[in-house]
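Structure tokens please, single chain.
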Amino acid sequence: MSLEKELKSKINVKKENLIMDKKNLLEIVGNVEKGDLIEIICFLVNKNPKLERNLLEYCQKNSIFENKMFITEQQLLQGWENSKKLINELDETVFYYEYEISPTEDNLFSQLEEIMEIINQNEISWETREKILLEVLNYIFSEHSEYYDCCNLEEWFMNLVETLCQTKGEKRYLVDCIIESGVSGYSEWIASIYREIGEDEQYLEIRKANLNTTEQYWELLQYYEEKNKKDLALETAVKGLEKGIGGIEEIFGYLFNFYSKEHNDKILEELYDKSMKKNRNYAKFEITELMYSYYKKNNNYEKMKNLLLHLVEFAQYDDLLDWYKECQKELSEEDFKLYEEQIINIIKNKDVSTYLKICLVKNNKKEVLDYLQKNPYIDRKHYFSEKIASEYPKEILEIYWKEAQNFANLGQRHNYDYCVSVLSSIKKIMDNNNWKDEWKIKFETFFEKNKKKRLLVERMKARFK
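Here you go.
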């Protein structure tokens, strides 16, 4: 009988009767030779691949110095093999999880993270790292590369590649592999590696040949700054502002810092005018705010005033009230009266809530009421109506009764809950005005009208009866 068959016969017992302690293990394997013991271990590992991981972890903890690297590399290779299996499973699972990470992706990302941790924390031979490197590059350059990019896997692959290549020579080898693949679209990656390893000539050749976005101009600008080539950095910034596609905030900020120190208002104005032609309001706001702060600091009231009006136009919704107050504070009394209507109209067109808050600040409660009567939906949380209810109780009650009925008509529990909360607000106003008898009459009418809505009736009884 072969050792494998003998082992099978010895362990072919009912699971509930098998208690795997040292005594039973000794009974099963007896005094076997080293070669036979290795054969047993191979049999068990082949039966259950998870045992290989446990075996390697045990050996890692209990290994002597001479074979520690070998064991670590086996752990690394096993982790990579597991990753490849998960990669092959991806196309079968990812489409079921269109808007979230699938369990397979999650497991794969965890496995790749573990692989990079092993590499970073241990000495791994180049032979082993190169083996994994070439296989990872095959995935990156394969026909499925666009698919890997969609599920964010390409970024993980590239991070793993950079972890595998540790020395300058290894990184240069990586660049050669990318170039030899003949696959286009990786010039940015190649340029970043050349820059990292100090291959300046090659870096500049690629970077200058691929200057399209403001981000690429910004990277080249920073390179010149690192090399203390201020003139070239400035020249690159100017070209990037004129020709670069994308956000201009960083490049304009660089130019602004340079010319504002020289108090060169003429060039600052020219740069600002060029920047305003870029069609992104958030960038316009950041740039205008820099110029506004500059002229404010230098007490140039006229230019500061014009920029302040533009800031209201470009500001985000959450900041509009603050910029209204800034106008009130910084503009002269005469100018504020002159421009206030223009400022308020800009705010009203951008965000009605801020406009109504300004009306409250100005004690223009009638304007708030008129708007709520025409557009009650704007006040779902009753922020504005509660502010004016004491002065216009009947008008607000009319809005609230309509709102309560609208939500009663919608059905469903959450709408009924909101309906009852509106009724509570109605009762509070009527109690405050000593209209308790009128509340009873109107509530009974509302109750009778909606008595067939069982879930609503339950809620009204619990709250009011």
